[in-house]
Every structure is written in C-alpha cells, then in structure tokens.
Amino acid sequence: MARPKVFVARKLPAVALDAIRAACDADVWPEQLPPSADELKRRVADCDGLVSLLTDRVDAALLDAAPKLKVVSNFAVGFNNVDVAACTARGVCVGNTPGVLTDATADIAVTLLLAAARAIRSGIDDARGGKWLTWEPLGWMGQDLAGRTLGIVGMGRIGYATAKRLHHGWGMKVLYTARGPKPDADRDLGATRVELDELLARSDFVSVHADLNPTTKGLFGADKFGQMKPTAVFVNTSRGPLVDQTALAAALRDGTIFAAGLDVTDPEPLPTSHELYALPNCVIVPHIASATPDTRNAMARLCANNLLAGVKGEALPNWVNPEAGDKRRA
Ligand code: GLV
Which listed residue, of 9, 100, 141, 148, carries a Cα 20 to 30 Å from 47's Cα? Predict the structure, then answer.
C-alpha cells in the first residue's frame, strides 16, 4: 500500500518528525515564517494529512483544494485557526494537543501577572536607561498579591492550573466564569463561580483563559476595563482577538486599570509601532506560553499521534470532531 502523503507546515521537534517520517512521505515546510495561504493550498493538494500551526488558516477553500485530506493535526491546544465545521462536513478529522501544555501555560500566566503587578517592565527600562538614580521611597510602586482576589475568565484546565498556583502560593481568593459549574475548583481552591460583571468588579487580578469563538471575540472592550478596579492587573494567555487592544491601551494610559501582561496579541506579531509597546505598564511576550522543551516535545508526540491515527483511519488520541467519524474519507 502506498505510504500516506503529509504536509507538515513547520519544522517540529524531532520526536514528531521522526515518527511522521517513519510512516509517511512527509513534506516539511523549511522556512521560519509560515507558508502563504496559496502555498499551503498547493502543498496539501495531494496530501492525506496536514500538520498545521496556529498561524495556518485551515478553511473551506483549503479543504476543497485537498480532496484526499483525511486529517488536520493542529500543533496547539487552541484550534480557532481551523474551521472545524467545514472539516466535519467533509469528513476530515481534526486533532489538537490539550493537557500537555497546561502547566507551562499557567506558569507564563503567573509570570506575566507578577511582572505586570510589580512594575517590572518600567523597572528594567529605567535601570537600563539611567533613570535609577537612588532607592526611591515612592518609586516603581506595584501591587501586593497576598490574599488578593483572582478572577479567572474561563475555568478550564489552564485556568485551574493558574488559580491553583496563585491560591496555594499567595493565598488568593478565586472567582471564575465558566460555561458550567467546576466542582474541582470549588472544592480544591475554594473558588466561586460568578457572572463576568461581578468577577471584574471584585477581582484584583483578571486572567483570561477562554477560547476564541464568536461569543468571546472582542469580549474585553472599554466597558469591561471600566468595570475593573483602578489597581487591577489584566493578563491574557488565551488568544489576542478576545481583547480590543485600542481600549486596553486607553485603559492602561489613563489609569482605568493598573497594568497588563500579554502572551497573545492581535495580530501576531504585534507591529513594533503599536501603542501598547510604548506603555510602561504593559508587558508583552511573543506567544511563548508552551515554549519549554518538555512541553513542546509532548505536544509534538501528541500531534504526530493524531496525524498518524488520522491517516490510518483510526480514532485520534485527541479528536476535536469525533462526529466526523461517520463521514471519514476512505
Ligand atoms: C497555543 O497558543 C496553543 O493553543 O497551543
């Protein structure tokens, strides 16, 4: 039987590429930057499988250009770059990589929260820039963490792991929003599920972990920042488009909120001319939440296993759309 043909849209950790190459004829995109939409279309035209990244748009036009495609294995837990309904309608399986990046992502949420709360960005800038003239009784003031209230927007795996760190480490009280009750969070972290308005009004720290979908796009605009405390710190490690960045910049500039820490922006990369970079109370890192060797290797293994299961017609270990199973392409 012919070996399956697959396109891998970027160089991945060897643990994935070795497994994929052992079972498939793999075309691996060699560049640092993603393939263009047209190039992606050309490359998948005769493929059975695709490894996509969050920078690769997988939509109906791409799927229609790839009549043999059986599986899209996304190298990410988030899959807002994939039109899952279009995949399901065409019998194309979609896989993602949840679970294995939970701790690394929660670590970055806490890192950003601490950095933003304690004015680390202006401290570094001022130390390097010759503005550190003496020990200042009133300089570089931040916010305390101990015993404060944390608001988790989206109490999934990563929200829980973030809350666990801050509850057990700093004794924070935890409020959260979620589509349904989260008995584990209530029991283990003394957490309370509330409406978003109440969370914003009561929280000293707001950390966003909701997925990007039509109901969460633009969720954080001027009205939401206006509901937060002037001492509030806002952290986003989910997806950039949940936030209206113009409104966030205004809220940071005029003191509506105290500071922000962002692992994700819209677009990515955020152009260096963007006003958020000029604000000393905004810490921005380039979408690095899962960037540790162990985490990326674990993602790579899962991603390869999803791909290989998909090309073989087996159940994907992490299958976003099992309902596609009935219509799978032969
Ligand atoms: C990263 O943002 C991911 O979704 O894995």
Answer: 100
